[in-house]
Amino acid sequence: MLGRGDILGADDLRTEEVNVPEWGGSVRVRSMTGCQREQFEQAVRDRRVANPTEPAMRALLVAYSCCDESGEPLFKEADLDRLSAKSGVALERVATVAAKLSLLTDASIEEASKN
Description:
By secondary structure, the protein is α+β, with helices and mostly antiparallel strands. It has a single domain (14-114), classed as Phage tail assembly chaperone gp13-like (rbstp2171, 2-Layer Sandwich). It contains 6 helices and 3 strands, in the order αββααβααα. It has helices spanning 4-9, 34-50, 57-65, 80-84, 88-101, 106-114; strands at 15-20, 25-30, 66-67. It has a 3-stranded antiparallel sheet. Helix 2 (34-50) runs antiparallel to helix 3 (57-65), helix 2 crosses helix 6 and helix 3 (57-65) crosses helix 5 (88-101). It is globular and about 45 Å long. The model has no long low-confidence stretch (mean pLDDT 89).
């Protein structure tokens, strides 16, 4: 049986390097922390309320999931407009891995936008 120390000490964030030829290299994608997941879901809700046809969900997922070698996020929310203007193929490539690592599905994103 796991104890408090076991759980709090567990290194449970997974990362994966994703080759993005459209950007000329690779990016590190990390599973979201519990706090990041809550923030991501709130951002989805906020953006859907402001604009029901919000097109930047993949960019939002990429922004919340890409990190540097030390685990610090690569992007800020202020980067979303520029990030969403990048190649749809590249965004999809990274977002697919981000969704897999954080166990996100289209249904869970849709559910977050409804609540």
